[in-house]
Amino acid sequence: MLEVRVKSRLGAFMLDVAFDGPAGVTALFGRSGAGKTTVVNAVAGLLKPDAGRVVVGGRVLCDHEKGIWLPPHQRRVGYVFQEGRLFPHLDVRRNLVFGRKVQGLAADSVAFSNVVDLLGIGPLLDRRPAALSGGEKQRVAIGRALLSSPELLLLDEPLSALDEARKAEILPFLERLRDEAALPILYVSHSVAEVARLATKVVMLDQGRVAAQGGVASVFSDTGAVTAMGIREAGSVLSARVVAHHDDGLTELQGCGGSLFLPAVRAGVGTELRVRILAHDVLLARSRPVDTSALNHLAGEISEIREGDGPGVLVRIKCADAMLLARITRRSARAMGLAVGQPIHAVIKSVAVSQSDVGA
Amino acid sequence: MSWLGPEGWAALVLSLKVSFWATLVSLPFAVAVAWVLARKRFPGHGVLNGLVHLPLILPPVVTGYLLLLGLGPQAPLGAFLQDTFGITFAFRWTGAALAAAIMAFPLTVRAIRIAVEAVDPKLEQAAATLGASRLQVFLTVTLPLIAPGILAGTVLAFAKAMGEFGATITFVSNIPGETQTVPSAIYAFLQVPGGENDAMKLVLVSVCVAMGALALSEVVSRRIARRIGGQDA
After folding, report:
1. What tens digit of pLDDT does each residue of A40-84 get?
2. Distance from A198 to chain B by nearest Cα, in Å?
3. Which residue pairs from A245-251 have beta carbons closer than 8 angstroms and sit at least 24 positions apart in sequence?
4. Which residues contact B178 (CB under 8 A, 6 or more apart)?
5. Residue B192 burial (CB < 10 Å; 0-12/13-18/19+)?
6. What is the distance between the terminal CA atoms of chain B, rounded to a whole angstrom?
7. Helical H runs in chain A?
8. Structural domain that includes position B173
9. Distances from the Cα of A2 to the Cα of A34, A59, A60, A215, A279, angstroms
10. Is the Cβ pair A76, B127 closer than 8 Å?
11. Which of A254, A291, B142, B191 has the greatest CB tally within 10 Å of its CB?
12. Is B66 a domain residue?
């Protein structure tokens, strides 16, 4: 669906990135300054890299060697910027139809009402951007990009300017977009939580290079990628299926070769969910713990132990077909005599997993 | 309008005509130059900037004399324009309009340039990603957003054109009914004994026209500001 290769030198910063993307969401992930926005701007044609090639659905947008360079307005990429960038002199309706209008396309009322419904912006149509909240602006910006009949959607940290409540308001829209719209999405973010929920594929950037790429579960359980992620954010992403909602407010899921009890999740029985479990929320035990308040005990086998410079170590545990990351102290690891291949029990407190860590 | 007298009345009508055409014809050029100066960096940027501002710092008489040298009947360019297009500037009202346009040009360009610089290029980038060509970006995003600056520039240009004296009298002289604008007429009245009364009437009219233009621009700019509705998006 998507093929990107970008080489660019900006002062002392060298960017050299190559990846491809499937249908669905390709998340470009990394700390600020890793070069994410530069890549997206090169894909949109707003920045001319020193060398590179961008192909979307078989259409070549630029190819340095062949001397192909389409200007931004011929690329058909819908770009949602960090700060929305709505046109202040146009009301929401005119912002939304701007793309079709300048492209000389006839108004498409079906697509229009679909997008307006999907994003829930019907009541805002006659307002000016100045009269919108941050979350509303961002939803309108997404709608505007979608309605310009793009072949690729670029989202550059669309949620970073919003508070947690507004993020929670928009994330489900993005999930629906991923599942309903038949166009590839390149999603830039430095938030592990967002990427864990949305990504079909993760491309992790670190200092202008691809540090890791692949599925969400494999990239986030890659101990080598942790530095690019930030150690406090390290955590694995598991997929699990909802099996029951219990009347004490807990939802039971099946995954990782065992049962997971989480605080009530709003999803029907049978739904496949992604659950992010932070490495520092996982406790390890040599034998199955008894008499403990923690509800989740997963049996597995240590597949990797990685020591860093600090007092902590990362332990990767294979539980059935999933990988779990645990961060414990070096001292505990020595005292327990942990070694690769050992059977181990991972203990996770139910309340440590928050709503924002669970997504469709 | 017997109150003004035929000579004063003719001067007022001519001044309005000269200022109207000077403003109208120079405006597209002013927008183009302002946009280029604000958005483009190229060799010769400083030269263009200096050239545009030259009438502001040169003595108006010098500008008028240079126009006469360049576009007078004896000058090659002036003769060419007359023979090929039948356009004559020297000692005609068209010349007065040209002189007024050139004198007002730097003021218009400055006002519009400030407005262009205030437009966030990121909005223009956003328009481009939505499929707008460069011309469409300019027409649908830049132009509406700089409308207040264009209006301010227009009012300034009109006021400057109404008041232009030095370059006008040097280039096209002071011919009643053809090139005698309000300032030239006031000057002429003051040269003859007993002309103070007529001069004073034209002074009053000048003040009224200036105030009227200012009030009109205030009303229109408020309407534009409401239409744009704040640029914080």
Report:
1. 999 999 988 999 999 998 899 999 999 999 999 999 999 999 888
2. 24
3. A245/A269, A250/A295, A250/A350
4. B14, B91, B92, B93, B172
5. exposed
6. 52
7. 36-44, 92-102, 109-119, 134-146, 164-180, 192-198, 216-220, 226-229, 330-336
8. 5-228
9. 21, 9, 10, 16, 32
10. no
11. B142
12. yes
Q: Is A320 helix (H, G, I), strand (E, B) or coil?
A: coil
pTM for this model (two decimals): 0.80
Q: Which of B129, B138, B139 is best to mutate for the A interface (most A CBs within 10 A)?
A: B129
- Please tell me the total count of domains within chain B: 1
Which residue intervals of B40-120 are DSSP H helices? 45-57, 60-71, 76-85, 93-118
Closest residue in A to B228 (Cα–Cα): A89
Neighbours of A245 (CB within 10 A): 16
CATH number of the CATH domain containing B122: 1.10.3720.10
Which residues in chain B have Cβ-Cβ distances shorter than 8 Å to A45? 128-129
CA distance A284 to chain B (A): 49
Q: Kindly state the average pLDDT of the residues B112-128.
A: 94
* Residue B233 pLDDT exceeds 60: no
CA distance B200 to chain A (A): 45
Q: What is d(CA B102, CA A229) in angstroms, rounded to the nearest whole number?
A: 61
Residue B233 lies in a domain: no
Q: Hunting for tokens 């496949």 — which residue is that?
A: A272
Q: Do A73 and B233 touch (CB under 8 A)?
A: no
Minimum CA–CA partner of B226 in chain A? A89
Is B116 contained in some domain? Answer: yes
Residue B75 lies in a domain: yes
Query: How many residues in chain A?
Result: 360
d(CA B176, CA B188): 10
Q: Name the residue among A77, A83, A86 with its Cβ closest to that of B129.
A: A77
The span from the CA of B148 to the CA of B144, in Å, is 8
Q: Please report where in the chains the tokens 């910006």 appear, as a residue.
A: A141
- Look up residue B59 and give its two tokens: 């003595």
pLDDT score of A107: 83
Query: Which residues of A are less than 8 Å from B133 in CB distance?
Result: 73, 102
A237 bridge partner residues: A276
Across the interface, whether the CB atoms of A89 and B132 are under 8 A apart is answered no
Q: How far apart are CA B190 and CA B202, in angstroms?
A: 11
Interface of B with A (CB under 8 A): 120, 122-123, 125-134, 136-137, 140-141, 144-145, 227-233
Question: Which one of B132, B134, B233 has the shortest CB-CB distance to A129?
Answer: B233
